[in-house]
Write a structure and sequence with these properties.
75% helix; mainly alpha
């Protein structure tokens, strides 16, 4: 028998200062997620503006959205700090690692969120501010707690994930319209195969964290695969609705048709094999799909602007 190793006392983390502490607070805002939120809002605003974009209102919309999204992400990390500490991919975040305390992190997130909503009220319009508040509240108080209770959390979480596109369109037009709702629908449906591919790849880690995502409660993956393919099928017609409504033209229509068929093609193996390789290819396809779709939408708006 090998000799027992002496116990090593846990060393509390040393508080960070200066640039390192700034980096910890920046990490609370989930920069990649927040960036995607800002981009979808910006494209929604651009498409909803028609032939003329109001640069001042555009900047107010983008900044307000940035603040609200960053604040919601920070509060989410406060709420999920225990779960994050049990997961390999999140245990080094500032809160579970002990580099930041929950109270100042909560104040930081709440301050950003309130500043963003006030920014939208003053610089854009009240309806956009209400949509921003709904995005943050549904993310924090519907999706976040439901992740530990039901696999339906993915559908619920797709709502705050899709609202920013509607926010941008509404900020430009001052009202909720069919065009904005079509962008909301695209983002909503796209998130299901995207999120489930991530959940499948990290299902053991999510299970370790205590989350009831579909791939965790469906270890064989049959239901996961069917949900991925069914939503990829639904995305095909839904993604073409902007062209039907006249807010996009033929460049968008045919480009998005090819993109949606390509995404569906990468989703189909998840019904039959559900291998790690299939999930990675689907995740990559979904990551490529959205920026290309948004790019086509913006490009089509430039070459054939609406009056």
């Amino acid at each position: 028998m090998s000799p027992e190793r002496p116990a090593i006392a846990a060393v509390p983390p040393v508080p960070r200062v200066g640039a390192a502490r700034f980096a910890d607070y920046l990490e609370l805002t989930k920069p990649r997620v927040t960036s995607l939120v800002v981009v979808t809002t910006a494209v929604g605003f651009f498409v909803g503006s028609g032939a003329r974009v109001d640069p001042g209102r555009f900047l107010y919309t983008v900044l307000g959205t940035l603040l609200v999204a960053a604040g919601a992400s920070a509060i989410n990390q406060v709420l999920e700090r225990s779960e994050d500490g049990r997961m390999l991919r999140t245990r080094h975040r500032p809160l579970p690692a002990g580099r930041l305390e929950p109270a100042p992190a909560l104040l930081f997130g709440a301050g950003l969120g309130l500043a963003g909503i006030l920014h939208l009220v003053v610089g854009v319009n009240g309806l956009t501010a209400i949509l921003a508040a709904l995005t943050a509240l549904s993310y924090l108080f519907a999706y976040t707690p439901l992740k530990k209770i039901s696999s339906l959390c993915t559908l619920v979480g797709a709502v705050p994930g899709a609202l920013p596109a509607l926010m941008g369109f509404t900020a430009a037009q001052g009202t909720v319209s069919a065009g904005g709702l079509s962008l909301f629908a695209i983002l909503f449906v796209w998130q299901i195969p995207h999120s489930l591919s991530i959940a499948w790849l990290y299902r053991e880690d999510y299970g370790r964290g205590g989350f009831a995502l579909l791939p965790v409660v469906d270890p064989e993956g049959g239901s996961t695969g069917r949900q991925i393919v069914s939503h990829s099928l639904v995305l095909l017609p839904v993604s073409l609705v902007p062209a039907v409504l006249g807010i996009a033209g033929p460049v968008y229509f045919f480009g998005t048709l090819l993109l949606s068929l390509g995404l569906l093609g990468t989703a189909l193996p998840m019904v039959f094999r559900r291998s790690m390789g299939s999930a990675r290819r689907l995740l990559l396809a979904s990551v490529i799909y959205l920026p290309l779709l948004l790019g086509l939408l913006a490009f089509d708006r430039i070459v054939s602007p609406a009056p």
